């Protein structure tokens, strides 16, 4: 089966590099699925889950806070603002971030930036959703 090379990098480090059968990513305009020989594309990522389908029984999941996605026929590059493996997300920290973001929307100060506060809430809620999705009773899977 044909594969495509995938690189996922953040400002801090490279988080994944390898071959995959497919990549699924959250773009601002909607989720995209990428297969080998995909048409070249440059898109803006929104906070959410990037899934890398390595094989029929192996998939890697990552949480990104935003960034850019570049697609070439034989390579997909995710340039994330922040990226972390989904299994490494801490649900309690994600819940705390949601609470802080909700409070920021209510406690408007003199320099309140509604768009920034709303974006922080969306990002925190997505992080929490993914943390809950990949939790298991004994920890993360």
Short description:
The chain has two helices and twelve strands, in the order ββββββββββααββ. The chain has 141 residues and is of the alpha+beta class.
How many β-strand runs? 12
How much helix, percentage-wise, in residues?
25-40%
- Globally, the shape reads elongated
- How many helices? The count is 2
Please, how many domains?
2
Record the strand order, biggest sheet. 2-1-9-8-5
* CATH fourth-tier homologous superfamily of the largest domain: F0F1 ATP synthase delta/epsilon subunit, N-terminal
Cα-atom Rg, whole angstroms? 16 Å
End-to-end separation in angstroms reads 27 Å
Q: Characterize the quaternary organization of these chains.
A: single chain
Task: Determine the CATH topology of the largest domain.
Answer: ATP Synthase, domain 1
**Uncertain runs:** 137-141
Query: What would you call the structural class?
Result: alpha+beta
Kindly report the average pLDDT value: 89
Report the order of strands and helices: EEEEEEEEEEHHEE
CATH class of the largest domain, named Mainly Beta
* Portion in beta strands: over 45%
Largest sheet: 5 strands, mixed
What would your notes on this structure say?
β1 (4-10) and β2 form a beta hairpin. The radius of gyration is 16 Å and the shape is elongated. It has two domains: 4-86, Sandwich (ATP Synthase, domain 1); 89-140, Up-down Bundle (Single alpha-helices involved in coiled-coils or other helix-helix interfaces), CATH 1.20.5. The chain is 26% helix and 45% strand. The protein has helices at residues 91-106, 114-133, and strands spanning 4-10, 14-20, 22-27, 30-34, 41-45, 48-55, 58-64, 67-72, 75-80, 83-85, 135-136, 139-140. The chain contains two helices and twelve strands, in the order ββββββββββααββ.
């Amino acid at each position: 089966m044909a594969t495509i090379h995938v690189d996922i990098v953040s400002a801090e480090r490279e988080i994944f590099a390898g071959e995959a059968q497919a990549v699924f990513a959250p773009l601002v305009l909607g989720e995209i699925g990428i297969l080998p020989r995909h048409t070249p594309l440059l898109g803006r990522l929104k906070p959410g889950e990037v899934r890398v389908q390595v094989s029929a029984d192996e998939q890697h999941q990552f949480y990104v806070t935003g960034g850019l996605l570049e697609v070439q026929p034989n390579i997909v590059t995710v340039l994330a603002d922040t990226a972390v493996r989904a299994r490494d997300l801490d649900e309690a920290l994600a819940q705390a971030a949601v609470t802080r973001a909700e409070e920021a929307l209510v406690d408007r100060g003199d320099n309140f930036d509604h768009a920034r506060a709303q974006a922080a809430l969306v990002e925190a809620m997505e992080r929490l959703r993914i943390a809950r999705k990949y939790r298991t009773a004994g920890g993360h899977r």
